[in-house]
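Final report, Chapter 2: Outcomes

The project's central promise was a pipeline that accepts a single protein chain and returns its three-dimensional structure in a standardized token representation, suitable for archiving and comparison. That pipeline is now operational. To close this chapter, we reproduce one record exactly as it appears in the project archive, with the input sequence first and the structure output second.
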Amino acid sequence: MTPTQQASIEALAQDILDARASFKDTELDVLYDQDSMPPKLRKAHVALDKAVDRLYRRKGFAFERERVEHLFELYEKTAAPMAAQSEKTRRKKAS
């Protein structure tokens, strides 16, 4: 993440906090009810979600499952080389 991207994400996260502050007497479970979430809060979350998605790929995700699958694929690509390196290190120590 570039410093510019980080600043953007931080600003969008602050927008969510500001939106929630508008409803300080409302419990979080009520604020985050899918059927009654205040439009201002929903809009702030959608904006943050889109910005975070763009950190991982240009095209957005159509469904939550698509996002999770993509993130797991990235994790596997990142973790697999580390796991292979760890195995080599253990073999050298065992010799």
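Archive annotation: DSSP finds four helices and no strands in the chain.
This record, like all others produced under the grant, will remain available to the consortium after the project formally closes.
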